[in-house]
Amino acid sequence: MRLLLDTHALLWWLFDDPKLSIAARKTIAEPANEIFVSSASAWEIATKHRIGKLPEVGDVVQRLPDYIHKAGFKALPITLDHALAAGALSGPHKDPFDRMLIAQAHIEFLPIITLDKVFQHYGVNVIW
């Protein structure tokens, strides 16, 4: 199965945080699954670290490609199609990072591993 990690799921996996659900942890750990990390998550992590919302992720900001590679994940670049779809999404949800993940999930046919219920309102298959 091919899956996309929400940013918090990525960080919780990397830091072995118990907030990551058992189902999410098992899904990510399954060797047959192909796990993607969006470029939007890199953008979100770096932004939130810069403004002080994620002070503990300094090393992740500096070495995210290494962390992704070591975990066996794959980077998902943001394409023009992704950007246009994210910008065109209807609804009240304004978070640009989530909107990009929603657009990527739709275009790439990827379920998202996330605690955030808002993704379901956009017709995205959520695993938690």
Secondary structure topology:
Layout: E1 2-5, H1 7-14, H2 22-29, E2 34-38, H3 39-50, H4 58-71, E3 74-76, H5 80-88, H6 96-108, E4 112-113, E5 126-127
Helix pairs in contact: 3-4, 3-6, 5-6
Count structural domains: 1
Biggest sheet layout: 5 strands, parallel
Total count of strands: 5
Report the β-strand fraction as a percent range: 5-15%
Structural class: alpha/beta
Give structural attributes:
6 helices; alpha/beta; Rossmann fold; globular; 12% strand
How would you describe this structure to a colleague?
This protein has about 130 residues and is α/β, with parallel strands linked by helices. The chain has a single domain, classed as Rossmann fold (3-Layer(aba) Sandwich), CATH 3.40.50. The chain contains six helices and five strands. It has helices at about 5-15, 20-30, 40-50, 60-70, 80-90, 95-110, and strands spanning about 1-5, 35-40, 75, 110-115, 125. The chain has a five-stranded parallel β-sheet. Helix 3 packs antiparallel against helix 4.
Write a short abstract of this structure.
The protein is an alpha/beta fold and 128 residues long.
